[in-house]
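Data deposition worksheet. Section B asks for the primary sequence of the deposited chain exactly as it was used as input, without tags or linkers unless they were present during the calculation. Section C holds the resulting structure in token form. Section D is free text for depositor observations; keep each observation to a single sentence. Incomplete worksheets are returned to the depositor.
Section A, Depositor: J.P.
Section B:
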Amino acid sequence: MTQLFDQIFANPLYTVIAVVLLAVLVFSIIKKVIKLIITAVILLVAYFAYVHYFGGDILQTIDTTIQTGTEKVEEVKKSVEENKQVQDAKKKIDNAVKR
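Section C:
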């Protein structure tokens, strides 16, 4: 891998090509992230407009959404911990069986 970097940096043409490719890659990633953020903001605004239009309380909806999200995160954390315990137990059983 270091030989590849040495070859790229030794030849100015390869260096320019690598920099251009890297710039295009970074630009495309940033462009996709910005599109994702804009889409999320538009959907969020549309959701709040829907809630407001049908007489709901936006602040209450936000609080409920945050609370539900927090509960789901806690459930996922608990599930991951249980899964780690199961994996550890399986490793111990496999090690005991191998002996």
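Section D:
The chain is about 95% helix and 0% strand.
The chain has two domains: 1-56, 57-99.
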